[in-house]
């Protein structure tokens, strides 16, 4: 029925390990024969063998301890992006493709994309590389069928030829013309102390820093416009992490992400104060990007558990500053679990200003791995409140203008008339950006006056206050009954429903005006448009704007009993929306039928 092999070097001495072995048949390499679950324990034959095992190939006691717990040498992070021009296998001319990855004895299978020859998977997973195993990554693209899956193509990637600690964008052509597969691949998390990412063996050379600064100097502003800058991150250690294991410890490792580039440290086992001492470099393609630093706990079967996160905009990095950063939760709204969890980092970013400006005016780099936002009541209510705040701000501006038109304050209205008339008479297009510059100037002055309060200590205090507020909100949320929650959702949903209905009604009224749903109003609109065209042809828009403004301001004085209105909205309010327009047509047909019947029955 099948066979499986077990590499004894993957077992730990004296520790029972639960393993899952995939059954294989050399004559049927593509057929899935099932799996077998076993519990294996490796014991030494004698004490001498035990000592020899632990002392073999170990240069330091620290490395010995690491090898007892972790035998993989690197982590291969793969982001499967998409396939292109795959072979059609179904009668409809499509396929149901999925991808199998194999690195040594470790395998991964992607999800199935149905009825597609150009699938997009956007899946991320980690495979582990061992020194004593093959470094050939095998990719097999299969077509999902009810009976037996069909082979669409395969290819291999030699990992030994790829640079470590760098994210590579790879596009591989499948054998036999089966299309192409695009993916991101990073080899990181190296455990050897002699690697270039280890701070204990790293030495900075002034020549290297000078070369980087020359590469991004202003004299080379138009060379390689996509290469905006160079980021160096030193990850020293962390403290106060939460205990994720039953023994009160964790197995933490740190992941650094800059858009689609992803690097990580080695795993430090059985500790809440890990010391990584790693240095990483990133090519900066957009200076407006954000560096995400996330700490995870490694569990069995290479699963992970979240311990803390940090988001650092590149523009806010202070070069050469060695600083403790507080770890936050997944939403970056409060502290992470643990005893005041922190991480010690040092960053340095060198970038070219001209390239950064040019890159800012171009589309952002799309991040492939983005979680889909599912519907959540709290997020829905929060977004509605954000929109409501903007609408309320606009409404307040409208009330202020209405007070000016109604002469609630004579001085305010008089000043408004004078300013409006002067602006309309002397207005030129170049004044629009100048007005926006004045808004920027106001914001700069306010920020300068308040800059003394925006210190790191204040930020920490704000975080603490946010945490307390968030805890209070959680307590209040828990105290709410189900009826109150449903009522809150109903109120917000009703607000959104009415707002969407008003916007849809306005759009349908405009549409029905042009398709003669109400002929009288359509003919009236035609006459008004002809008169407005003639008026705009002979009279300048500047004088028309002045006349309109003076009419609005003086209405309260000349015609104090008239109701303020908007003639365009008044016209559209007479036009029925889609439902009522259909009802009008039905009523019109019924009336015609009644008249026709009366004529027929008449003697």
TrEMBL record:
One of its GO terms (biological process) is regulation of neurotransmitter secretion. It comes from the Eukaryota. PROSITE patterns: C2 (PS50004). GO terms for molecular function: calcium ion binding. Residues 55-174, 205-329 form the C2 domain. Coiled coil: none annotated. InterPro entries: C2_dom (IPR000008), C2_domain_sf (IPR035892). Keywords: Calcium, Membrane, Metal-binding, Transmembrane, Transmembrane helix. One of its GO terms (cellular component) is synaptic vesicle membrane. Residues 455-478 are annotated as: Disordered. The chain crosses the membrane at residues 413-441, 520-545. Residues 458-475 have a biased composition (Acidic residues). PANTHER family: C2 DOMAIN-CONTAINING PROTEIN (PTHR45911), MULTIPLE C2 AND TRANSMEMBRANE DOMAIN-CONTAINING PROTEIN (PTHR45911:SF4). This is Multiple C2 and transmembrane domain-containing protein 1. It comes from Cacopsylla melanoneura.
